[in-house]
Amino acid sequence: MNPGIWHGGLEYKVPISVLSRIGTAAFLVPTAFSAPPVATILPSTKGQTGYTQGGQPKVSFSVILLMMYFPARLEPKMFSEPTDCQPDRERCIVHSPSRMMQIYSLKLSQIPIDNKSVELYGYIAVRDYHDSLLNYIVNRSRDDPIIVHQGSLIPMTGPKRGISMSSTVLLEFDMRIKKGEPEENDLQLIDGASEICEVTAPMHVYTTRIEGDCGAVDITSALVYEAVEATIEVVVPEVLSGFSLSLSSLVLIYGSRKEIQLFHGTICESCALRRSVIAVGLKFKIRRKGSKNGLERYCSFKAANHGCARRQIMLDIASISAKVTWSTDPL
To answer: Could you write out the three-class secondary structure of 258-271?
Structure first.
């Protein structure tokens, strides 16, 4: 059993070190019985922001990164159409699968007030070896908060591109609960960063709990060996009648099948859905507007190093087109 896993109700140490936003050392505290491992951020040393207790400046790559809040520069699909494959694109030995991180879900596991919805805003993002800027998993402004309650999934808006695990990944978070005006009344849900090591991260799906001053967020993820980046683009080109659409990706990793929700909403006219970067098999759950009965359609895609694949679903109320573009990690 790998260390750092909550499995079968048993407790294991978690190999993730945690840094506070201002660089204070912190660690994960293992829990027992029914909850995932808990990340606890130590309070900062009063009057020593960004410095050691001896007064010397801290030299830390991770801490320096925390000061850079610009979005990631690199785009997905960087190696979907390479020109240097050998001997050819189908048998390419130049570009190959690599270790990548897959985030399955974010769940609001605890809030101060039970059974009441809250307005949540802020961000959760990663920084990897290829791009030290923020690759957002979720990013909502205070003017556009998410309305959720305890136990709700937090809708993911990213990542913008695949998350490389060729070296340590920094997971950064700053989520707050809106309490009206003024902004100073808002509650800090979670705030800090976790350094996830590519050597000790579990090789199967696991959940880590990030606890803050006013609640907690559960992050379910996995380290995937031999992975490629999949960019999903879904278009609804023709709509004859409004319908409710739920779009998910079904990912099979190490024998465990997990579902990642990509979209849930009402479609009333032709549109293109938000692009998603993920590992793939797609499930479409469709219900005619005003009807309680729904139907499910599946599109399966076989992973490749390069290129793209298309599928189309024809219904009596609409047509749906799905395209998946494959790319290896830019090592």
So the answer is: EEEEEEEEEECCCE
From the list 91, 86, 162, the residue with the least C-alpha distance to 131 is 162
CB neighbours of residue 270 within 10 Å: 12
Please list, in sequence order, all residues whose beta carbon lies within 8 angstroms of the beta carbon of residue 258, skipping any fewer than 6 positions away. Answer: 104, 205, 220, 250, 251
Mean pLDDT of 129-137: 83
User: Which residues touch 110 (CB under 8 Å, ≥6 apart)?
Assistant: 150, 211, 215, 216
* Ramachandran angles phi, psi of 64, nearest 5°: -60, -40
pLDDT in tens, 153-181: 999 888 888 888 888 888 999 999 998 88
Chain segment 214-236, per-residue pLDDT in tens: 999 999 988 888 788 888 888 99
Those residues with Cβ within 8 angstroms of residue 181's Cβ, 6 or more apart along the chain or in another chain: none
Q: How much is the pTM?
A: 0.71
CA end-to-end span of the chain, whole Å? 29
Please count the other Cβ atoms lying within 10 Å of the Cβ belonging to residue 76: 18
* Cα–Cα distance for residue pair 28/111, rounded to 1 Å: 20
